Amino acid sequence: MNSYEVSTLKKGLLILDLLREKHALTLTEIMEELSMNKTSVFRMLYTLEKMNYVTKHNKYYHLNSHIFRNEHLYWHHDIQWASLIAPYHLARQEQITTYIGILEDCEMVIKNVIREPFEQPAFHAIDSRTPMHSSALGKVVLAHLSPDRQQAMLNNMELHTYTTETFYDYGLLIPHLQVIKAQGYAVDNEETNLGKCCIAVPIYLNKEAIGAIAFHGTTEQIKKNAIRSYVKKLVEASQQMTVEINYLLD
Coiled-coil annotation: which residues (predicted)? Predict the structure, then answer.
């Protein structure tokens, strides 16, 4: 090491760089990535947390979003969607691809996709669109809009057919949306892509549904008898996201 370098400071900066790259890591994962002992990593994380450079949620450490804003991540209405921690915890825990979509004008826009190994956003998928009437993300938000806003969107929406399972009849879609609102979640069971299933719940801000979080996988991965269990975990993540969003907007 260069005689002018400060070893402890350098190690602390390496931790910050690692968290910027990997997004959220446990103490053990940081130890393994940097080949450092537990005591040193713990003391540096403790110091960084006390100085508010790093925050901890459950067992995961991540950069404080108020201080570190990744210029490569898209900000929308002051929310850095790909920086929210709860979806990464959820995706890693369940080992299932996780989507975040928000309502922009009359479209559902994807703001984050977390695929295996569940550490970084799939940047190429951010800002893509998903159908309002067939995707779980779109349907669950559409179902939770006010009646007037929902009707206005339906009046201006073409019900394109993507598979044989797609709802293309307004007479069938409207009662389907009523069921979704009552149960609190939506399922896209091969309505957008054959062989694929998606489960989504709303994300709320100021008690208004502004988007949705969803699990996406094959019909073999997401079994019908596991849907309610997945919904419970998605709801918990959605609630955590609301807390994070409110913190970011303070």
Answer: none
pLDDT in tens, 30-70: 999 999 999 989 999 999 988 888 888 767 787 776 666 54
Count other Cβ atoms within 10 Å, centred on residue 249. 11
Q: What domains does the chain contain, in order, with CATH numbers?
A: 7-63 (1.10.10.10), 75-249 (3.30.450.40)
Q: Is the pTM value of this prediction over 0.70?
A: yes
How far is the C-alpha of 177 from the C-alpha of 154, rounded, in Å?
A: 11
DSSP line for 36-74: --HHHHHHHHHHHHHTTSEEEETTEEEE-TTT---TTSP
Contact between 36 and 11 under an 8 Å Cβ cutoff? The reply is yes
